[in-house]
Amino acid sequence: MIDEMAEFEVSDRNSFIKFLEILRQDFLTNSDSWENQNLDDFLEAMIAYTEDIQGYYDNTNQNVDADQPSWKVFADIFKGSTVYE
Q: 3-state DSSP call for residue 34?
């Protein structure tokens, strides 16, 4: 499922909803592969990842300004929070 998230393009509210469904299903079936397996850890990682996300975009040569909110940025924050320590 995590591979499906990596390839899934989030561009609007409906695709973000679908992304969250995929994310939830991945947690239900593969939670052992998630770094943050409870809400407190997940939210803590989400805070840290949100602070650092511009570095991710810069290091991966993506022309994304994290200060301009978009459905893609929101999805990337959620996705990153599954593995960020």
A: coil
